[in-house]
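A common beginner's mistake is to predict each chain separately and then try to dock the pieces by hand. The better habit, illustrated here, is to supply every component at once so that their relative placement is modeled jointly.
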Amino acid sequence: MIATLPEVKKFLQSSPVNMRIGGQWTAAANGKTIEVRDPGEGAVIAHVPDGGAADIDLAVRAAREAFRKSGWAEMPANDRAVLLHRLADLIDKHAGIIAQIESLDVGKPIAAAAGFDIPHAAQTLRYYADLSVHTRRREPIAVSGFDARTVRFPFGVCAFIFPWNFPFLLVGWGVAPALAAGNTVVIKPAEDTPLSTLYFCRLAEEAGLPPGVVNVVTGLGHTAGAALAGHAGINSMSFTGSPEVGRLIAESCGRNLVPVKLELGGKGAAVLFEDIDVPAAAQALAGAITLNTGQVCCTATRWMVQKSIFDKFVGAAIQELEKTPIGHGFEAGTKMGPLVSEKQRRRVLGYLERGAGSGAEFLLRGGAATVAGHENGFYVKPALLCGPADNVCAREEIFGPVAYVLPFGEEEEAIELVNRSRYGLANSVWSSDLARANRVAESLVAGNSWINAHNLFAHGIPYGGCNLSGLGGGVLGPETLLDYMRPQSVVRPLQ
Ligand code: NAD
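With all components supplied together, the output reads:
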């Protein structure tokens, strides 16, 4: 086991790790706390405040006050960018600490957090900080008879609710454009994984962001989350999570006429044609379904394989899945950690039962796993299923290391199978015939189509969903910065 850093021990021992409201470390108004567990051991590692409506109200007021009075909103974009760059540098400097906190909280391997989640969040801050410097706040409109321009202002208070699979990465993706645009933010992290978001507040303070610019209220979804989404004092709402909760958020925002961005679930497919390098594709897709223990909204969960390579591909994929090292996130060789909670493990195991009960066949059994020395952790083994295309495991988001493989004959059949899904987040096409790959990529209805790879994220390439997978423009694109700005036309008639 990798040793826990003294800074991480100290951070956890400050339990309860308090919330950040208006520049103060704050307990919940009701005095209650919630437990935070290491899913690799099943043990409680910290407590955080069980924030509720009163705390949300305080945080929204603090964010409004900071928007009006802290100077953040009026600060020249390049000065704000300096502070955001400083924050990104501090994230890099503390990456080892944050990666351990994230690994303990989510269960993911430290190397995965340190190699991707943490540096990618820092890079997102730099991307939007730089973009904001080069974004014109005033643009003339050439319309005959008028002297007109568009002026862009920050909205005010931007609210964020995040899920538990990539807590730190998603904070970066979410709040970076909002802050770069000059807004203040209130964040409600997932109750299972609040710790790295609280650490983010420490770094924001150290970087010199004025008090009240970044506020975090920890707590449950139906209390703190619902209070934030329904608060009349927020000016924009960004939600990442399940479609079921996304609907509730959109309803609340609809009542208050608050603009909303939703990044929701998925049931991504990979379409594999017969001209691929089979072992390489099998390795890549086994890697995709076990990444973050399958708790990845956009990953490839339905594998559509051309009939002529079906058996060869399935054999290679089973080999890859079987050799995935499962273990605690702090074990150096671990590629796949536990699921985030016992509740999530019950969900995944329940899907396997329901899938088998309604006609799916196990090509690889999967199921609960026991890891020596960590017997109380929430581990599962990867599973591979096949069977009818309308099986529950082929239709619904499982959010675990479970793939469903389906054979197809011709291109049109594969496209039809993929587009049956009500989700629309991300799919991939695998072929050495680039003309075909591009044609099929454009025929798949989703926010993202990847070619000869799956799970691709780069600053400047928009990432979002359609249909059940979300609305409102997504994240990571240059346009995302404008999503956090309010346009205003200023017009004078020319006589
Ligand atoms: P979830 O919807 O259960 O919870 C997400 C967040 O919403 C949590 O912070 C939770 O406390 C809060 N919440 C729950 N009930 C609420 C309510 N009534 N009002 C307000 N807030 C409430 O999702 P989850 O289980 O944490 O995460 C998994 C889901 O997130 C999956 O569907 C996954 O695909 C999706 N996801 C999507 C993206 C994306 O970019 N599209 C990224 C990551 C995860």
